[in-house]
């Protein structure tokens, strides 16, 4: 049972690390989407102002 517990612990650690990585990745994607969105907003605003 000692081996089983160790295996279980290491699997749990791997899963936790993987979830953390996925969370970071999705935050990064969300941030990039937000940047694109605000860049598009700026372009719209500029074209409304007649600057472009």
UniProtKB/TrEMBL annotation:
Coiled-coil blocks: 15-49
Taxonomy, superkingdom: Eukaryota
Keywords associated with the record: Coiled coil
Keyword Coiled coil (UniProt): yes
Name of the featured protein: (Mediterranean fruit fly) hypothetical protein
